[in-house]
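Entry:
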Amino acid sequence: MIIRKPKKKRIMGKWIIAFWLLSAVGVLLLMPAEASVAKYQQNQQIAAIDRTGTAAETDSSLDVAKIELGDPVGILTIPSISLKLPIYDGTSDKILENGVGITEGTGDITGGNGKNPLIAGHSGLYKDNLFDDLPSVKKGEKFYIKVDGEQHAYQIDRIEEVQKDELQRNFVTYLEPNPNEDRVTLMTCTPKGINTHRFLVYGKRVTFTKSELKDEENKQQKLSWKWLLGSTVFLSVMIIGSLFVYKKKK
């Protein structure tokens, strides 16, 4: 005599399997889709600066946003965390939702000894990954700034985490320029969602080598493909495993 499991339990099993499958698909597809919307204007401006050295003419639907943002003054690239963002002049809310900004009163990014502009960016925004991964960079790595058609390379020689109030009290001490060095400092809030501290990454300008930047970018692209492959395998295993469990329970 064959004893069948109650219909309600079979239906519940199907719902549990469906939930896990939809969750996996959501993680892999939904979040990147959300991020792609936020990155549309970033990529448009970055591509234009890469081609011409100046910001793009946006379409009419983006005119209002363009007025609020202004034109980007450069591009920041950090290969080690696969980051490429437009740099704007200022740190308004609109700017920091769409890229990174130069803190007022800290100078410009055109380069030269005695300069140390502070480039600030948000972390922890739902719709975009801006400076979320900045705390993952390491001393000795490089970041790059494209400005006026030229690429400037900066090597990270110091990293520190400072309380927000401490930085405000001693701002000049932490960001004081060196008359004999060309420097740039990157900053974001930390920990995500709490923001009691500021994460500072200091870079000193070094000789730019085009092939070196290309090698770094290629290396990070390979890592991205590995992540995508791993995610695909994970999703496949979940689907096959779920079907196996379902058939076994039937």
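Residues 29-227 form a domain with the Sortase; Chain: A; fold (CATH 2.40.260.10).
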